[in-house]
Write a structure and sequence with these properties.
Structural class: mainly beta
Mean pLDDT: 75
Strand order of the largest sheet: 1-2-3
Oligomer: single chain
GO cellular component, one term: mitochondrial inner membrane peptidase complex
Strand content: 25-35%
Number of strands: 5
Protein name: Mitochondrial export protein Som1
Pfam families: Mitochondr_Som1 (PF11093)
Helix content: under 10%
Radius of gyration: 20 Å
Distance between the termini: 52 Å
Low-confidence stretches: 1-6
């Protein structure tokens, strides 16, 4: 199902994640969790891209408003196979290049 305002057969999908903290200020620890909605644009033949920063999310009702120009904003994505780890040990990378 194509979403209104999206090119072709693109669709919008949401993942609701949570971040949690442990409050140890009281007599017993309490876990408090807060929702983090993440919104993605999924188009056939292209990498899925996160557009959370481009949309408006009402945290009370959960309603997501996708601005009409959200599809005009070029959001670059890469396939997972094209992603490399950036936090490698610099010494290990240097040794590998020397070989």
């Amino acid at each position: 199902m194509a979403s209104e305002g999206l090119p072709g057969k693109c669709r919008i999908s949401e993942i609701l994640q949570y971040t949690c903290d442990v409050d140890t200020s009281g007599p017993t620890p309490e876990v408090q969790c807060f929702p983090i909605p993440r919104i993605f644009r999924i188009c056939p033949g292209r990498p899925t891209v996160e557009i959370t920063k481009l949309v408006n999310v009402n945290m009370i009702t959960g309603e997501v408003e996708v601005p009409a120009d959200a599809c005009d904003v070029p959001v670059q994505g890469k396939p997972w196979r094209a992603i490399t780890r950036c936090n490698r040990d610099p010494e290990a990378v240097s040794n590998k290049q020397d070989q």
